[in-house]
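Action item from last meeting closed. Structure (454 res):
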């Protein structure tokens, strides 16, 4: 059930409550009016009977001849006294004071009425009023029988007072009803419709209304308190869940970052291992196939030179066969260390083959590359001299640069350096040769097959 349906249900329930309240208030007004009418009638009858008793007591003190004089005195005393009639024991009218036709008609009408009162024109004032009667049994010396005295009294004032009191009470009750309905409406919206509307709230809205839920949880109405308490627990649980989720998210993010860093390190190590020769620690042919063209294109785009130095160990096979593979491997490791220690961080040393090595020198000219190659040849010769082994290996190197030769790509550059190396070995070994000199003299033999692209 969504919020609109809950609101519709709560409004319908509110209308039922309002109708019930209005019905109860109307019933209270009608009950009060009926009780007031009965009370006023009883009070009026009692007042009339008392007044009749007073009139009878005053008249019985005199003889019949003095009735007219005593009635006039009573009229002066009681403003609402209309007439007094003397009835015989059989209920017939003997005399009426004042003895006028109008008074006799009123007396007969009152006697004919069941409750002893009529709505008629007052004989004394001429106004329309209700005339009530009081009957008192009397006896006197002038009559051997017990007679009755019928006293007629106007009761306009009690009726008017009763109507006015009823109207005032009705207005008062109506005003109280409006106040009660407004108060009930506010109470219903706050204590019933409000908690019901919470059922349709989402987690975000429920957390935003946590203060309102705490106000509802005050002990005003047990059911509302229970609903509000449950929602307050739910809001607090959601806040705790959000905090726990945020903490778990941070921890997961930290773990993910740590795992990512570890993965990156492992990936770099794996990539480095995949591109590194395990014996010499230099780059391998895989690295050359992946990076050669990139280095060549970067040098050409920046307008810089790229030099290549192809190095080969002379007589390595006979040396390896004579002294064993372990000694040969140690010599290869020495060459790897020598190459790494002789180049810049931006240069690359590659184990090209079994006993062949390649240096890629970005930004170096052919002369600078030749200087490095000569230093390597001399250092290696000093190392082999210390070995004191006759017929030891030596180094031969071929140098090529992009400015000294016509190279359309990196493979051509390596091929020209390889051709220069072949020329150096052909001219006596333990020396270097330049590809530019080789192309100028045209005296070198045909170069070996260039590096094939993978």
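Sequence:
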């Amino acid at each position: 059930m969504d919020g609109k349906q809950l609101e519709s249900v709560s409004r319908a329930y509110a209308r039922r409550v309002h109708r019930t309240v209005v019905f109860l208030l109307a019933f209270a007004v009608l009950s009060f009016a009926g009780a007031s009418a009965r009370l006023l009638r009883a009070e009026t009858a009692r007042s009339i009977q008392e007044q009749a008793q007073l009139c009878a007591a005053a008249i019985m003190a005199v003889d019949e001849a003095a009735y007219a004089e005593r009635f006039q005195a009573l009229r002066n005393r009681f403003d609402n006294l209309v007439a007094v009639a003397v009835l015989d024991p059989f209920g017939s009218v003997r005399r009426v004071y004042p003895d006028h036709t109008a008074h006799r008609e009123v007396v007969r009408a009152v006697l004919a009425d069941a409750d002893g009162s009529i709505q008629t024109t007052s004989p004394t004032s001429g106004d329309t009023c209700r005339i009530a009667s009081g009957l008192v049994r009397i006896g006197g010396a002038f009559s051997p029988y017990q007679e009755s005295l019928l006293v007629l009294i106007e009761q306009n004032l009690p009726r008017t007072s009763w109507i006015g009191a009823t109207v005032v009470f009705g207005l008062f009750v109506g005003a109280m009803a409006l106040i009660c309905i407004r108060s009930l409406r506010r109470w219903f919206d706050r204590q019933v419709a409000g908690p019901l509307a919470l059922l349709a709230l989402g987690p975000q809205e429920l957390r935003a209304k946590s203060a309102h839920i705490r106000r509802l949880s005050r002990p005003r109405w047990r059911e509302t308190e229970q609903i509000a308490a449950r929602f307050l627990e739910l809001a607090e649980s959601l806040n705790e869940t959000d905090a726990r989720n945020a903490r778990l998210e941070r921890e997961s993010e930290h773990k993910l970052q740590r795992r990512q860093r570890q993965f990156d390190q492992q990936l770099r190590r794996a990539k480095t291992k995949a591109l590194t020769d395990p014996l010499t620690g230099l780059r391998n042919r895989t690295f050359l196939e992946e990076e050669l063209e990139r280095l060549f294109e970067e040098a050409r785009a920046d307008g810089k030179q790229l030099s290549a130095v192809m190095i080969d160990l002379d007589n390595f096979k006979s040396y390896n066969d004579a002294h064993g593979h372990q000694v040969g491997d140690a010599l290869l490791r020495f060459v790897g260390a020598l190459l790494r220690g002789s180049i810049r961080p931006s240069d690359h040393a590659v184990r090209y083959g079994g006993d062949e090595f390649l240096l890629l020198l970005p930004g170096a000219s052919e002369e600078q590359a030749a200087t490095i190659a000569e230093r390597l040849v001399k250092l290696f010769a000093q190392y082999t001299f210390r070995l004191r082994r006759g017929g030891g290996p030596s180094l031969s190197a071929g140098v090529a640069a992009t400015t000294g030769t016509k190279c359309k790509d990196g493979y051509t550059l390596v091929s020209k350096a390889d051709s220069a190396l072949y020329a150096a070995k052909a001219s006596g070994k333990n020396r270097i040769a330049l590809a530019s000199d080789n192309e100028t003299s045209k005296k070198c033999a045909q170069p070996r097959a260039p590096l094939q692209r993978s």
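Note appended to the action item: The domain at 3-164 is CATH 3.30.450 (Beta-Lactamase).
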